[in-house]
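Entry for the shared binder. Reason: the reviewer on the internal report wants the predicted structure included alongside the sequence.
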Amino acid sequence: MKPLKSDVRLDAILGVLDCESLCDIGADHGKLPALAVIRGAAKRAIAADISAPSLKKAEKLAAALGLSDKIETRLSDGFESIDFDEADVFVIAGMGGYNIISILGKKPPPRGKRLVLVPHRNAPELRAFLILNGYLITSDAAVLDGQRLYDIISAVAGSGAAQTGKIGADGGNIGEEELYLLFGKGNFDRKNDDFYIMLKKKAGEFDKILKTVYNIGCAKKKAAYDAALLLYRKRREYDDNGQNS
């Protein structure tokens, strides 16, 4: 069998894993669990998915790689057929933020469980859900894979101070907390060229639209990207002066 190929998104997920046991919710063909075991990011793994045909492919992949004794497949709708004691880290990737929220809401992980969440869309809504429900976000950084920016969010269940009320600004100037919600705090705290490139690209796209026709939705998005660029540049200037790490 040819070596199992990875990509930027998978490499970023694997980069935040270091555990005895992994459970991949929505594992599809089982590529992530296989790579995790091969690279030593996990010693064993559960590939869970709602699709039986996908799990058959995951089983075939594990067998072809000689990993059948280390990778178990499990037919499960989210955490439905999963015991949280079976794994140290749970990954939910390959789906939208609202789907991830639904999975976490139906069967919330117990306090202390580590999660790696990779929403393909609606990342701000997912961050708001985590903050409101007492999750501690331990890292949150984006990677550019092709033309798409993926958010890699690590969190620990029940380890944050649960907040109540509305998350985010109601209007006026966009503050730092709202920018963290929209784009991820980790992208401002550390140098991230992928994030900066995408910020400039999106700001430019909205600028071109607004030069042609004014649209309130585009204007708000442009203002958010401009504010994010300003904060990112401010943080990097601070870094360059040797005053921050």
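Summary line for the report: The chain is about 45% helix and 20% strand.
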